[in-house]
Amino acid sequence: MAGTRQLDYAGLLAEHGLRPTRQRVSVLVALASRDDATAQQIHALLADDGVRVGLATVYRTLAWLAEHGIVDTLMHHRGEVCYRLCGEGHHHHLVCSGCHRVVELGDCELDPWLADLTAEHGFTLEAHTVEVTGLCSACQAVGTAA
Amino acid sequence: MAGTRQLDYAGLLAEHGLRPTRQRVSVLVALASRDDATAQQIHALLADDGVRVGLATVYRTLAWLAEHGIVDTLMHHRGEVCYRLCGEGHHHHLVCSGCHRVVELGDCELDPWLADLTAEHGFTLEAHTVEVTGLCSACQAVGTAA
DNA sequence: TTTAGTGCAAAAGTTTTGCATGGTC
DNA sequence: GACCATGCAAAACTTTTGCACTAAA
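Predict the joint structure of the above. Result:
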């Protein structure tokens, strides 16, 4: 299972003109094993698995991945950036505040509303970000039971 | 004008059980004079005006203000936090990418849409953030003229 | 062999904290 | 006078950068 994924990642990197090194594939594998993670967390995660990768390399790899649109960046906390492996296209996220599970929402249906809104104030629409947090069914059940 | 505002701010601080010191009022005045600013920018702004306030005090004051809901925090850039003086209640912002002017949008009309969306995935809605960027009419005119 | 990537360590940047001093109630 | 707040400096923290070394094309 891990083998096939690593091949995918190698191909993904090669497609973008990046050499599929052991370190870069490791970062992608680590990122895929979590909903999201900071550079520090990925570095620690790899170290725990006995994979030795320099912290600077993790940062450089994540910067590359973000630049190529392979990962999204989020800034929830102060002074640290969270990275998330994402699908293609414009979409938003629904995050569970209990278990931090992330649901990718399909198409963005906000454009008409946003177009009206911006036009009302004489603006032309450029971009928007939406983050929705809630409690998933599993976490609701736990909360009710407890 | 500045006098009346400072009185307002002093009252605002007192309401929340904070001593209305010169430094705290200065931070609020500086924040009000801009659409948004980082702690570093506020510190520099005050220094330029000859108001001597320690950087740590600016950070401490902004942390208090954020905790009491008097200012909103935004994290656009890496490693620095932006603070913005806001009105009451739940609302969103429309930011001009040209002049950084901020329009506060009134009521949030997203709740029905969000309720459907979260229910669809078995979530209960807790919170959401929306940031819209565009180009305001003035900046559109400049762009067209240039 | 030529180029790109890595690791290490130092640097840069923002933010936090400890403690003595000063201001406010 | 008691307590809160400030200022300064040092520390903590994440992230970036320089450079010699290693691995890949």
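Chain A has a mean pLDDT of 83.
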